[in-house]
Amino acid sequence: MFSHKINIYIICTLLLYIVVPVYAQVAKEVQYLSGSDNEHTVEWDFWITGGRQAGKWSKIAVPSHWEQQGFGSYNYGRDYVTYGKNFRFHEEKGIYRHTFEVPANWKNKKISIVFEGSMTDTEVKINGKSAGDIHQGSFYRFKYDITDKVHFDKENTLEAIVSKMSADNSVNNAERLADYWIFGGIYRPVYLEATPKAHIAWTAIDARADGTFKSNVYVENIQENSTLRVMLKDKEGHVVGTQSVKLQPSDSVKLVTLSVGQPDLWTAETPHLYHAVFTLENDRGENYQTTERFGFRTIEVRQGDGIYVNGVKVKMKGVNRHVWWPETGRSVNPRLDLNDVKLIKEMNMNAVRCSHYPPDKSFLDYCDSLGLYVLDELAGWQKAYGTPVGKKLVKEMVMRDANHPSIVLWSNGNEGGHNKELVDEYAKYDLSARTVIHAHHRPGNAINGIDGNHYEDYYSTKKILEGPNIYMTTEFLHAQDDGGAAAGLADIWELHWEAKLGGGGFIWNFADEGIVRTDFNGTIDVNRVNAPDGILGPYRQKEGSFFAIKEIFSPVHIKLKKLPADFDGNIEVENRYHHTDLSACTFAYKLVRYQPPYADANGIRTEKEYDLNAPAIKPTEKGTLKLNLPEDWKAYDALWLTATDPHGEEIYTWSWRIRDNAAITKDILPVKTATTVELTEDSVHYVLKANGITAFIAKETGLLADLANEYSMKLAFRDGPLLIDGEYTLKGVKTTSAGENKVVEFDFDGQLDYIRWTMLPNGWLKLDYRYDMHGKRPYAGVSFNFPENYIITAKWLGNGPYRVWKNRLQGVTLNTWENMYNDSRAGIGPWEFPEFKGYFSDVSWVQFNTTQGKFLVATDQEDMYLRLFDFYGISGPKHYPELPAGDISFLDAIPAVGTKLAMGINNRPGVNGPAGEMTVLDQPVSRTLYFYFGIPRGEKENTQFVMPEENILTD
């Protein structure tokens, strides 16, 4: 009986093999001739005609730019302004040679050589024979069929002659004479492809949100009746749809359609991906297979309304990005591409414009998988490709990129570089017929219902948003140095968010385009004001705007700036996701206490953390986040709230004060030692002394003139409080006692009312002042002098660790921070962030560590800005006021910063919105500062401070 069962099994198995044909799975084979990226290169023989190392054979790493390998000459694109028609780089050519072998099993297959990118005109020869027409255009994949030119029994020789400038002037105009670094060489990989003679050449997919799947499948060399099978798989590999169609020998393209029920949809928030497996079969068991990744989504431009993804209007929170790395220029690798996508997502952006050319394919792969809306752009920097070459390059770009679900729009050139004869070319290769736009800087160039006009200000943006077109600005808030980017962004973003026709926009630019110059010992060159345009430094160092953008673009939108006196734990929240309910996010809050000034550590001293129930708030709607506060919550210094997205990434952490500055100052005043306060005078000073500290106050001005501390070096902190930008004259002086304290008060006529100095027995020097300055002011407050070269660190309790501007107050957290002195300048270097110098907001106290010892300054009142030394916002024409007098300032108002393109006078930052306007002072301002010039005896290692029984804050 058992044997009988075995025989039946064997017979059935044999019948199965007879009935079902066995197909050998064949896929495209690839053999790299170069390395795969800028970190994995292969040496080829190389000769260059001009510049460094010209006229001799040597070796070069491929892929690379020859300038970064020590060959040729550097030029920034705008050099043509200087050299004109005699532009010397027309003559710079590189000759590449490389030998390779072809696998024997590739016989009877089609063999192609593929260049992913070469700058600029590229002539290719195989074994001395031309592979085809010279390719023109730097940023596009091109290939040649070399089946009849290769040997299988001996080595093959590849020769590529690459001209840095093109013989086609329209190519030079479109991509070489541009506002970016221009390089030469084979900078992306080169490889061989082998396929069967009959094969699938490429596919164009259109997968819609309703589950409809269509694909144009382009086939080659079909010699017999065949079958084309399409199988769709989800991310787990489950088959969700299949379809088969018959092919005739005459077929070159076949449309395949099928439908999937309720697919998981692709958006930037939910980047669900599928795979389409295309199989070409014939009756003889030959089988060729290729796979494409795609997403189901529907992109619509509803003219006079908005841009829709899967039936939902979306607004672009975007950035422009060059393909860039300092050592290797535009030759990069997937790891760098992945990091850039993660950084863009970290800023809570949902979109990227590929300026001003198509990027590496791996970048688009990561946009697909992590979720970013992409504008893929044909090169054309203010001038366009000619029609013949332009048609070829559109075809190359769209054929390579059409199946990326992340690409939502095609951009047909930049700022006037639009050849309108190319607009209809995109749909020839893009089955989904995405909308073609123009990224432009002149009014009147709207196309297909979208206006992408560049660098409009707040007020002109309001006007454009009235219609008739959707306004999606493809460049705005030019981020040269520390200007632009997030400065003014909050105001302009609110316009787009609230307006029916607001499509959002793309900040210029992602990272400073700084190149490591191999002709200047590795110096990083940003071409002065031309290329330091990044939110990040060239090595992706995060500037202050990075974190401000993260807050402004947060999809969890919270307007609360200060906790109200009757705060009950309820915080109003707006859901600014387009496709995600807030219940998919997670929330937690902390109650924190901060380290005091003389503690060895910074940051939080103690904390309690509580999870929250995420509220169910639909996209674009508002609701309430409820914090169940413990009874002792007011005993803490601050409240921190963190939102985390459905993928486990932090959206943002907000912080609010609980205890005010008066309470914090009272806690930190040390009292372990005290002496009798002495008040004396000489011919020019009032002299206040206590606990080893002596302050000399100038009789004629009321300013601190000198300091002495018997326990440490003499301090050079002096010449304040100097009222910034005010006029006043001394009216009178009086000296008094207030309990154990000694007081010297100076009264003034004019905009300064008084200065009052009070010495306390423990050595604290208290300063009270009041001023009355009406009208619009760029800044307001007082300054002191202190030599910059004496500073080592600054430690403070306040917002940080990054500096702020009046129109870029976001992106900072209330904590105790300490920055080491540096002279870093955003956009110029050394790109050491956070910058030491600048305006810092909501400061309670600051401790200076200097070559003369430490000293501490604290305030009773809220909203004090600290200014540290001389710094700038943007180089060139200044779009912010000159800095206040002095070196260290304690301010009640600070200026905004402009952008490179907000030119002119009269406080130009104001053109980018109300936050950029000067502060209006309409009532007197009073402030109290406390100074301790040194570390009090017995306090150096202490983190706890004991208060006296009496109130030492009383005059």
Topology record:
Elements: H1 2-19, E1 24-26, E2 29-32, E3 42-48, E4 58-62, E5 75-76, H2 80-83, E6 93-100, E7 109-115, E8 118-119, E9 121-126, E10 129-130, E11 142-145, E12 156-163, H3 169-176, E13 181-182, E14 185-186, E15 190-196, E16 199-207, E17 212-220, E18 226-233, E19 239-247, E20 253-259, E21 274-282, E22 286-294, E23 299-302, E24 306-309, E25 312-314, E26 316-321, H4 334-346, E27 351-354, H5 361-371, E28 373-381, H6 387-401, E29 407-414, H7 426-429, E30 436-439, E31 450-451, H8 458-464, E32 470-476, H9 489-498, E33 502-507, E34 515-517, E35 523-525, H10 544-552, E36 556-557, E37 570-575, E38 586-594, E39 604-612, E40 622-626, E41 638-644, E42 650-657, H11 661-668, E43 678-681, E44 685-690, E45 693-698, E46 704-709, E47 718-723, E48 728-738, E49 741-750, E50 752-759, E51 765-771, E52 775-777, E53 780-785, E54 791-800, E55 813-820, E56 838-840, E57 845-850, E58 853-859, E59 865-868, E60 888-893, E61 919-921, E62 925-932
Parallel strand pairs: 1-22, 26-27, 26-33, 27-28, 28-29, 29-30, 31-32, 32-33
Antiparallel strand pairs: 2-15, 3-4, 3-6, 5-13, 6-12, 7-11, 7-15, 8-14, 9-10, 9-12, 16-17, 17-20, 18-19, 18-21, 21-22, 23-24, 24-25, 34-35, 36-37, 37-40, 38-39, 38-41, 41-42, 43-44, 44-45, 45-46, 47-53, 48-49, 49-50, 50-51, 51-62, 52-61, 53-60, 54-55, 54-57, 56-59, 57-58, 58-62, 59-60
Helix pairs in contact: 4-5
